[in-house]
Here is the input.
Amino acid sequence: MSEHHVPRSTHHTVHSVAPPDPEPVRPEPGPVWRRILHLPLFWALVCGALAVPGYLGGDLEFLSFLFTLVGGWLCGFSFVNATFRMPARRGLIVHIAGAVGAWLLLWLLIEAVPVLLAPKPNPARAFLAVLQMAAVPAAGWVWLGLISRITAMIGARDAAKAPPAPQWEAAERGSLARFRGVPLSTRALVLWCILTAAVVAILILVVLIVTGGTILNVGPKLFLLLYVAVPGLPAYLLMTWLLRRRAVDCAVRFDADRLRIEVDGGEQRIRYRELERLVWRAEGDFARIEARGSGVDLTLVVGIARKPGGTAAALPALSRRAVLLLEDAGLTARTLRGGRGLIFERTPAVPAARH
Here is the structure.
């Protein structure tokens, strides 16, 4: 019996190894004046400076009162945003410490400091009045943010018992993820917050008019309850409820050559070569997708949405394949503050030097 020799193949399958994650790329900082104009604390200082003359005159006008409330809210808004940019555990600790500090500051400004300035007329009392009025919306926003944070943590704990977060599914030409989201730009979300603060300010003004200002003479605890919690908490809950009602079914698909985003049955397509900016944050209250390019400017806020079962909506982590597709198209990746997401931006090409 003859033996048949079967030649062994000398070809070996070579498995490509994905390169390590790129180092975060920090964009070049803009001019100092432009960075200052984007700081909420700068505008809080401007509001405080515009409000002081009205308090020095002794006849409090509505405009001065409004400047004080807006300035205080900007301080609280800046602090809460800073804690959300920190790592989760550190941000929670700082937020709790800030909430306790805000309560102590209110107590000092309402109970302790006025006694020191009471014996005789003192111009410092006008500045004290500005601080008193500004501290109330600032403390209120800090406490509302803390309530929202704790509620999100409880929801995350309950979500562990719920179905898992969205996962990537195999599609015809790529991978697909389905989720619930609110079509809302970041600018529109800020406008919603400003509108909520304005509604609270109007409610507080109505209370002051109806009570003839006597509410300012109550103790700090009752003052905080009547002045912040009563109008502020319902307004905050109403805002989140209205936004969640706008949540729709969405889907994102990474094809070989383009990004497809489906929102409530409609689809937007952007070729990777035409994509200018993509933000992908998978978890948290600010979980979202931002895509801009080829005439498309779309933002889907996922963190404030809810699934039909009531659990918080989320996004799957961005796959390595999707990252490589975006990088191969000329986009540069960098991490969001706190490492909770990725931003892909197209950097302008540097012209070659002429010899």
